[in-house]
Each structure stands twice: as structure tokens, then as C-alpha cells.
Amino acid sequence: MNYLDRVTFDPEQCGGRPCIRGMRIRVKDVLEMLASGASEAQILEDFPDLEVADIRACLQYAAAQASHAVLQAA
Q1: What would the pLDDT profile of 31-69 be if each residue is shown by its tens digit?
Q2: Number of other CB atoms surrounding residue 42 within 10 Å
């Protein structure tokens, strides 16, 4: 799955922060819930419009953001 299919950016919504499928559910909110120990089932209960693939897309997005080149001083 390609996370870009589910992660959207809209400058008119949530300050342009990444959201899920055009909804006002920010990727950050899902990631914070996962980091605090929430299960996928708990997240889906709190956000009934989400799908399991949306949660996985959040993780893929976060992984892609962490995978950037590191510049070293010469």
C-alpha cells in the first residue's frame, strides 16, 4: 500500500497538516495514540470513520518522514 493514497494535505484544513483521506483526523493524532499504547481496535472505536489501512498509512508516513538523508560536516 502507498500511504500517499490515504494521507492528504489541504492548506484549508488543519493548517495544512497531514490528515487521513481528507477528513479532519490528523496523522499526528493517530500516531500519538499508537505511541501512548492504544490498540488499533481502540483507535477505530474512537474514530469510526477510520479503517485499519488508515492506521497503517500513518505508520508508513511516519517511517518515510524519518528516512531522510543525514548531512555530515566535512
Answers
A1: 999 999 999 999 999 999 999 999 999 999 999 888 877
A2: 13
| Residue labelled with grid coordinates 517511517 | 63
**What is the gyration radius of the CA atoms in the chain, in angstroms?**
14
pTM of the model as a whole: 0.85
Q: Are 18 and 61 in contact (CB under 8 A)?
A: yes
Q: Which domains does the chain have, with CATH numbers?
A: 3-66 (1.10.10.10)
Report how far Cα 43 is from the mean position of its chain's Cα atoms.
Answer: 12
Strand partners, 20: 7
